[in-house]
TrEMBL record:
<dbReference type="Pfam" id="PF01541">
    <property type="entry name" value="GIY-YIG"/>
</dbReference>
<dbReference type="InterPro" id="IPR038476">
    <property type="entry name" value="UvrC_RNase_H_dom_sf"/>
</dbReference>
<dbReference type="GO" id="GO:0009381">
    <property type="term" value="F:excinuclease ABC activity"/>
</dbReference>
<dbReference type="GO" id="GO:0009432">
    <property type="term" value="P:SOS response"/>
</dbReference>
<dbReference type="GO" id="GO:0003677">
    <property type="term" value="F:DNA binding"/>
</dbReference>
<dbReference type="InterPro" id="IPR000305">
    <property type="entry name" value="GIY-YIG_endonuc"/>
</dbReference>
<keyword id="KW-0228">DNA excision</keyword>
<keyword id="KW-0267">Excision nuclease</keyword>
<dbReference type="InterPro" id="IPR050066">
    <property type="entry name" value="UvrABC_protein_C"/>
</dbReference>
<dbReference type="InterPro" id="IPR047296">
    <property type="entry name" value="GIY-YIG_UvrC_Cho"/>
</dbReference>
<dbReference type="Pfam" id="PF14520">
    <property type="entry name" value="HHH_5"/>
</dbReference>
<feature type="domain" description="UvrC family homology region profile">
    <location>
        <begin position="260"/>
        <end position="480"/>
    </location>
</feature>
<keyword id="KW-0742">SOS response</keyword>
<dbReference type="GO" id="GO:0009380">
    <property type="term" value="C:excinuclease repair complex"/>
</dbReference>
<dbReference type="InterPro" id="IPR035901">
    <property type="entry name" value="GIY-YIG_endonuc_sf"/>
</dbReference>
<keyword id="KW-0963">Cytoplasm</keyword>
<comment type="subunit">
    <text>Interacts with UvrB in an incision complex.</text>
</comment>
Length: 603
């Protein structure tokens, strides 16, 4: 049963029973989902013992404005419900598996003479899906084996009884080369065909013993009937199946169904490898990355991976083994039976899984290291090309925009570590300049930006880039001089025509190699500032022209227009708003006038 909402101060009203709790922030966004043996006690641990929480959890608790819960019968049910809610909503503070793949499946269709083919879309009504497979190669190996052992059609014909009876189809090449027995011309009975499908399903389930016994029995039956050629064919199929099983065998065949999960971690991430074993063979293998959100323990991270991977790969294994136990959980979960083997075949399987997890961690560190190396290489090259004292890991770039002095605006974009930091972008309305004066506009906005930063005590950038040549650069330098910070921050101008770099006081520009990564970075920053300024100018122009047009409507004044723009944020949103939304802000009469104007304007 879904509960009513409670504020954080009302956590004592929660029931003392198993369930899932949901935390919402001020905007009503779900930020965390958790499970609990006792909802009341678990919620209390966040608000009563807050002094014992780590910094990340304290930050989350400060955001909580509403609590909802769902009661369930057992802790294991709570664990499954928590997993489903996290998958569906991906809350900000929950652990997420970093895995955006759509996995391949093999589908056995629900029809007369079923087909077997690969797909990535799961639509249950179409038939039975087997998988998901961790890789296309693994899936293709199984499909190739099935098609080698059984004569299953590859066509997509509708083989309903009346169509076969009406002789609508003719056998194709697959029949003539022996890969199909011609059910489309009633050359193979449906019962015989379904017998092959049943055996193929056993292989898809990982139950190789059943088709092996089937082929062995068929071989002996043919031999007793002195049909030696058919017996030889069944013998070949049996050998093919045994060869496939031998290739995938990693443990004692007596190990029927087993899941192995191993985990390695560092300060920010954990890496979990999953192996599913059936009859001694690896049926599924997958390694995933989990990012720590609230300084979770390895036991908590492992439990998350166990639930989600078993659900994802539809594992039916009752036994789980790992390299760590789950003793580190605050509340052990009934229904998860995990052990840590010390010797024997199972210990060897844990070591195999752990080897895969460690390799994945090493590869991720290598890739991450290369990315950092590339980023540093570009910034170091830029430092060298511009003869800077420090690596320019904080760059700000300015551009302005106007049409013959109308609606003058400007923009500033910020790049941190060579990447755009969009939260630091700023728009400016030019306030003190009359007419089309780009130089004066640049002096104003650069001065306003760094006067504000100095007053707030924020660190200055390592490089300032001005979109323009010597004139705009000189104007920006004047602003820095007025603030008495000229010389503290390197500043350059980039002229568009020849992509020349200008330095203050130097009449000769610097030409950086056009293929240089450092020049490309400056160009990218400049282009981003230009895009940001143009977009802002277009919005301001559109808003003002719309506002002017609205002011001309009888009964609509500046106050009404300002209300609309304040609420809907943009002209586009006003034009797309429904009559009900407009009426809620300005009333029925004014809404009718504005809708009439918008309708007339769109003709």
């Amino acid at each position: 049963m879904e509960s009513p909402s409670y504020s954080p101060s009302e956590y004592s009203k929660l029931p003392d029973s198993p369930g899932v709790y949901k935390y919402y922030n001020e905007e009503g966004t779900l930020i965390y989902v958790g499970k609990a043996k006792s909802l009341r006690k678990r919620a209390a641990s966040y608000f009563i013992k807050s002094a014992n929480l780590n910094l990340k959890t304290k930050r989350m608790v400060r955001e909580i404005r509403k609590i909802e819960f769902t009661m369930v019968n057992t802790e294991f049910d709570a664990l499954l419900l928590e997993n489903n809610l996290i998958k569906k909503n991906q809350p900000k503070y929950n652990i997420l598996l970093k895995d955006d793949k759509t996995y391949p499946y093999l589908l056995v269709t629900k029809e007369n003479f079923p087909q077997i083919y690969p797909t990535r879309r799961v639509i249950p009504s179409r038939g039975t899906y087997y998988g998901p497979f961790a890789s296309v190669k693994a899936m293709n190996n199984v499909l190739e084996l099935i098609r080698s052992l059984f004569t299953i059609r590859t066509c997509k014909l509708d083989l309903s009884p009346y169509k076969i009876a009406e002789q609508k189809y003719k056998v194709c090449l697959e029949y003539h080369i022996g890969n199909c027995l011609g059910p489309c011309e009633a050359l193979q009975s449906e019962q015989d065909y379904l017998s092959d499908i049943d055996q193929a399903k056993n292989i898809l389930k990982g139950n190789l013993g059943i088709p092996k016994a089937y082929f062995k029995a068929k071989m002996q039956e043919c031999a007793e009937q002195l049909a030696f050629e058919r017996a030889e064919r069944y013998k070949g199929k049996l050998e093919l199946l045994e060869k496939y099983q031998a290739k995938s065998l990693v443990a004692n065949p007596a190990i029927e169904a087993l899941d192995i999960f191993t985990i390695v971690s560092d300060e920010k991430y954990a890496f979990v490898n999953y192996l599913n074993i059936k009859n001694g063979a690896v049926n599924t293998t997958k390694t995933v990355e989990l990012r720590k959100k609230l300084d979770e323990t390895e036991a908590e991270l492992l439990l998350t991976a166990i639930v989600r991977l078993q659900d994802q790969f539809q594992s039916e294994a009752k036994e789980i083994i790992s390299n760590i136990d789950l003793d580190g959980l605050e509340e052990p979960i009934e229904g998860i039976n995990l052990s840590v083997p010390k010797i024997g075949d199972k210990r060897k399987l844990v070591e195999l899984s752990l080897k895969n997890a460690l390799y994945y961690k090493k590869e991720k560190a290598l890739i991450s290291g290369k990315a950092v190396e590339k980023k540093n290489r570009i910034l170091v090259q830029l430092q060298k090309d511009l003869s800077l004292k420090d690596i320019p890991d904080h760059i700000e770039c300015f551009d302005n925009s106007n049409i013959q002095g109308a609606y003058p605006v400007a923009s500033m974009v910020c790049f941190l570590d060579g990447k755009p930091a969009k939260k630091e972008y700023r728009h400016f309305h030019v306030k003190t300049v009359v007419g089309p004066d780009d130089f004066a506009s640049m002096t104003e906005i650069v001065g306003r930006r760094y006067r504000r930063m100095l007053s707030e005590g924020k660190p200055l950038p390592k490089l300032i880039v001005i979109d323009g040549g010597k004139g705009q650069l000189s104007a920006s330098v004047e602003a820095l001089k007025e603030l008495d910070i000229y010389g503290q921050v390197p500043i350059i101008g980039i002229a568009k025509r020849l992509e020349e770099i200008y330095f203050p006081g130097d009449s000769f520009p610097l030409h950086i190699d056009k293929k240089s990564e450092s020049l490309r970075l400056i160009q990218r920053i400049r282009d981003e500032a230009h895009r940001f300024a143009i977009t802002f100018h277009r919005d301001v122009r559109s808003k003002n022209s719309f506002k002017t047009a609205l002011d001309s409507i009888e009964g609509i004044g500046p106050t009404t227009t300002d209300k609309l723009l304040k609420h809907f944020k943009s002209v586009k949103n006003i034009k797309e708003a429904s009559a009900e939304d407009l009426e809620a802000i300005i009333g029925k009469d004014k809404t009718a006038r504005i809708l009439g104007f918008i309708k007339q304007e769109s003709r």
